[in-house]
Amino acid sequence: MSEYQYYEFQAIDRPLTQEEQEQVATISSRTYPSSTFAIFEYHYGDFPLDEAKVLARYFDAMLYMANWGSRRLMFRFPAAAVDLKQIRQYSLDDLISVKKSGVYVLLDFYPELDEMESDWIEGNGLLSNLLELRENILAGDFRALYLVWLLGVQKGYLKDQVLEPPVPHGMGELDDAHSHLIAFFSLGDDLVEVAAEASQPLPPEQFLNAEEAIRMMPEDERMEFLVGLAESTPGLALQFQRRLQALSGPTIDQFSPAQRTVHQLKTQAETARRQREMEEKRAREDARRQQLEAVAQRKDELWEEVQRLIDLRKPKFYTEAVKILVQLKDSAEMLGGVDEFQYGLGQVKKDYRRLSSLMAKLREAGLLEE
Known about the structure:
Blueprint: E1 5-10, H1 18-25, E2 37-42, H2 51-58, E3 61-66, E4 71-78, H3 84-87, E5 96-101, E6 104-109, H4 131-138, H5 143-154, E7 167-168, H6 176-184, H7 189-197, H8 210-216, H9 219-230, H10 236-248, E8 255-256, H11 262-297, H12 299-311, H13 315-335, H14 338-351, H15 356-364
Antiparallel strand pairs: 1-2, 1-3, 3-4, 4-6, 5-6, 7-8
């Protein structure tokens, strides 16, 4: 398999100027950036620049994937619009980093997933499915951060005695963007299920009386926001919204305090995995029993069908006849009637012993002794 690497950048808060598009175009002769995105694909070679620096200068989101399993997701936030202290509670070496870059904050998810992908899909369109996560984080919804932190538990990055970070509310109410994140980083469903057990439901949306809140705002603060609006200050709209929310009433806490150690999470996830596998096995067995009960109810009809197919004297019909015989055998072994089945099979062997092709297929299916 040839090498494949995919980089996608997207601008969200503001479009790129014509000059910025021309600058991005110089990175590679094979990309044609628009005012909102740029895509780079490589079958040989690597991205020539530092992706984080390109993101910090031009874009708000970046996705990277390679066909040997590597994954990376980065977001750029206006520094004034995020709480660095809160976000850093989820930082983890070799997995999640948060750093300041000028007037921006860069959030980098970069797990070392070095297993070759068996069912490789190209990256085109994947970033769009994840962009809502950026808006969630800006709004103080850190479920994505906690999910990627769980990946550190899955990959063994953390010692057993380490305590989990605050558990965001709504871990049991994940939306499509979170589901895409789980799939993108191959996070196990059992750990996600365990996370949800300690998470409270999402709080109801708070009513915001914007006009009343604006009247409560001091004149100099209103002027500061207006100046920021005129100067296109990054993240200003979100800061303004938060300030109005604070003036309207107390902020609802969106986290449950850390309670479990990494060891407890792993143990609970293993218990969940075993329970899930038992339920899946039970479901398969129930489905199999129902299938074989249906065969038992039609056994006389099926024996006639076996004879009809064999009498057509063509190998493809022998194959169908043998499939039915295997179903009859399995039904007899599970529900009773083995002697009756063996008698019927004996008649088939006796009546059609000269059909060498049929005998070979019976032998392959384990219905004829060597």
